[in-house]
UniProtKB/TrEMBL annotation:
PANTHER family: AMIDOHYDROLASE (PTHR43569), AMIDOHYDROLASE-RELATED DOMAIN-CONTAINING PROTEIN (PTHR43569:SF2). Residues 2-265 form the Amidohydrolase-related domain. It comes from Sphingomonas glacialis. Pfam families: Amidohydro_2. Belongs to the metallo-dependent hydrolases superfamily. This is Amidohydrolase. Coiled coil: none annotated.
Length: 267
């Protein structure tokens, strides 16, 4: 089983400025040994950046080079920087870099429409890197337009696009529009942090059903979003819930094969 969304950090080191102190449940160092202590049945992880800092990405890649448990890294790069193409090329030479994640969730809805980004997206496509999309529902239309402009760029939507529980219809429609582009995938991760306590089962089931209807059985992958997950549940609780919601016949794809395909890993 591959956990396609795991974070590690050291508070105050490697460019780490988040989580802040008020998030007491996760305001401490988390490393791969901490993850191994709580995860069961996982034989590989994708480490995903948590800081908008090149030092964080370099540190994750150094960890990955030393630990076979890390199957790949999704790092960060300032795609607006004048040297973005050079930095992407440099990072792509690191064997376990699999993608890049600009942190768009709090940026303008049309962020992906900026033509100044197209050169970076082109270099990512040539390098075979995944664009990891940390977005909210308002960003999905621009992400679809990006998929149209760069049809060979692989795009993975994190946390199912952080659906707005008050507007699931609009989110679902935008997700279906994006899913019409064949090189887009959706990650079942971070969902428990998006729902109201006490409504988890019904709302998560509704969200997962919409993702399944949009992307089908072969373009969905699972991630824990550990340790951010601790704000809502344990790793075991989220894994069990996800396994219940995904039909058994799809387990191998959702919990291993799709991640292996998208990130170019050995299945």
């Amino acid at each position: 089983m591959i956990d396609a969304h795991v974070h590690v950090w050291r508070i105050g080191a490697n460019g780490c400025t988040w989580p802040t102190a008020e998030l007491t449940a996760i305001h401490r160092d988390f490393d791969l040994d901490d993850y191994r202590a709580i995860a069961r049945g996982i034989d590989g992880v994708i480490l995903v950046q948590s800081q908008e800092n090149a030092i964080d990405t370099d540190w994750l890649l150094d960890l990955a080079a030393q630990d076979a448990f890390v199957a790949g890294v999704v790092g960060w790069c300032d795609l607006h920087a004048s040297n973005a193409a050079e930095r992407i090329t440099e990072l792509s030479a690191r064997p376990k870099l699999r993608g890049l994640r600009p942190m768009v969730q709090d940026r303008a809805a049309d962020w992906y429409d900026d033509p100044a980004l197209d050169a970076a997206f082109a270099v990512m496509t040539t390098a075979g890197l995944v664009l990891e999309a940390l977005v909210r529902p308002q960003h999905l239309p621009a992400l679809a337009r990006l998929a149209q402009r760069h049809p060979d760029l692989r795009i993975v939507v994190d946390h199912a696009g952080k659906p707005d529980l008050g507007a699931l219809g609009a989110w679902s429609e935008a997700l279906r529009t994006l899913a019409a582009f064949p090189k887009t995938w959706c990650k079942l991760s971070g969902l428990l942090n998006e729902v109201v306590a006490g409504q988890e089962d019904a709302r998560i089931a509704e969200i997962v059903a919409a993702v399944q209807a949009a992307f089908g059985p072969d373009r969905i992958l699972w991630g824990s979003d550990w340790p951010v997950l601790h704000l809502a549940a344990s790793h075991a609780e989220w894994l069990a819930k996800a396994r219940d919601l995904v039909p058994v016949v799809q387990h191998r794809a959702v919990f291993r094969e799709t991640a292996a395909f998208v990130y170019g890993l050995a299945a």
